[in-house]
Design brief:
The protein contains six helices and 25 strands. It is mainly beta.
């Protein structure tokens, strides 16, 4: 007599935003587990992680499971996720009935999705489901000692949070050079928890940076056509160009009409900025555009030139290499990697020579005033102001000095 499978799914109600002293709790639906077995005998679970060198076949052999069932499960999941594509350290759960038949397999494909394969007459069926994280609103703050990463609680999640912050404010703040000791930051961010433990950060909802006497704020908001970050007045933080095209150590030469050339030993204009950086550092286009030149060009060495809207052109010189996909006519988006730092052409060491022109006139990349992107549309401005005011109150309640003492996202001063 064939066993019947009952699949249940539970969806927990979403909570509402609570700030600083209260956590937002939103539970996403997790994968349902089958129940089957003789009489009241409960299913048995194998919970483990993929070990180095293991395949799914090796896992089945280790737990004395029927390889024939594995073949049927592979067929069921072929169009969803191949069972041969498993990664070391990723968790899995195998549910068995009292006769050691596989009722289900749940494998974590990544941090967001689970491959779920469930017995279904006459074989198996497969799908992907979202990991059932518990979402909370966390608060972080701190005082800069040397850089942002070292001022955040330790660990990989904080590095990713610092990168996310730099992406949000990269049009206004150069995270390589602008921070000074004593600058502060405040962040309102989603935290993703699983089984009572913090796992990673989600979206940044609001943030404030006080940098060298200037204060910058960002609020996440759905303006109707996109979700983006806006300032206090509802203007997009996005600008036509990023503030810098790479992560660099220092500016080795600035924009000037008179510079002693380090090789030629004569005074001549330097109509760009030289960014000193390690050989091979990725170089990104600062704005959307079309590549108009990519190749070797005399003293410039390997050079990429990008034409942007409104008469702007940017150039990136002395590159060590240019990716194969970057050629004349290639459309690029802001942040796309178009080469790596080198010392080709007339150069004394690895650096990027970066230049901006508008209708033939060279501009100083460090001082040029570029237009921002779009603003919140008028029909959404009232909603934006309400959200921004709530976020601003929450940010103001964060004490950077207090939060600087927190050792983990779970110790955010609450």
């Amino acid at each position: 007599m064939r066993k019947k499978l009952t699949v249940t799914a539970a969806i927990l109600l979403a909570g509402i935003l609570a700030f600083f002293l209260g956590d937002l709790v939103v539970r996403e639906p997790g994968p349902a587990l089958p129940s089957a077995g003789r009489g009241n005998d409960p299913p048995r679970e194998i919970v483990d992680t993929v070990r180095k060198g293991e395949t799914v076949a090796a896992i089945f052999e280790k737990h004395h499971l029927d390889i024939g069932e594995l073949f049927r499960m592979r067929e069921a999941s072929a169009g969803i996720h191949r069972l041969r594509d498993i990664s070391v350290g990723m968790p899995y759960t195998i549910t068995l009935d009292p006769d050691n038949n596989v009722l289900s397999l749940a494998y974590h494909i990544n941090d967001e999705e689970i491959l779920r394969i469930v017995r279904s007459e006459p074989g198996y069926r497969a799908d992907k489901v979202a990991i059932g994280y518990e979402l909370r609103i966390g608060t972080l703050g701190g005082v800069i000692e040397s850089n942002l990463v070292s001022s955040l609680p330790g660990g990989g999640p904080s590095v990713l949070l610092a990168i996310a912050l730099s992406d949000i404010f990269s049009w206004d703040v150069d995270f390589n050079t602008d921070f000074r000791k004593g600058d502060t930051f405040r962040v309102l961010v989603e935290e993703r928890w699983l089984d009572g433990a913090f796992r990673k950060f989600g979206d940044i909802l609001a943030a404030e940076l006080s940098v060298d006497g200037n204060t910058y704020r960002a609020y996440r908001f759905d303006s109707g056509d996109r979700t983006d970050y806006f300032d206090d007045e509802g203007n997009s933080l996005r600008k036509a160009f990023l503030k810098a095209p790479l992560s660099y150590r220092r500016i080795s030469s600035g924009f000037t009409k008179r510079r002693m050339h380090p090789i030629l030993k004569i005074v001549r204009p330097h109509l760009g900025v030289d960014y000193a950086a390690p050989m091979g550092t990725p170089v990104s286009t600062v704005g959307d555009g079309v590549v108009v030149f990519a190749g070797y060009k005399g003293p410039n060495g390997n050079l990429v030139m990008v034409r942007h809207p409104n008469g702007y052109t940017t150039s990136y010189g002395h590159l060590s290499r240019i990716p194969k996909g970057v050629r004349r006519g290639t459309e690029v988006r802001q942040g796309d990697v178009i080469g790596t730092v080198g010392a080709t052409g007339r150069a004394t060491g690895p650096h990027l020579d970066f230049r901006i022109r508008r209708r033939g006139t060279f501009l100083n990349p460090l001082t040029v005033d570029l237009p921002r992107g779009g603003a919140v549309p008028p029909n959404r401005m009232s909603d934006f102001r309400g959200v921004a005011e709530e976020f601003a109150r929450s940010l103001a309640a964060i004490s950077p000095a207090l939060h600087a003492k927190a050792e983990s996202p779970g110790d955010s001063g609450k």
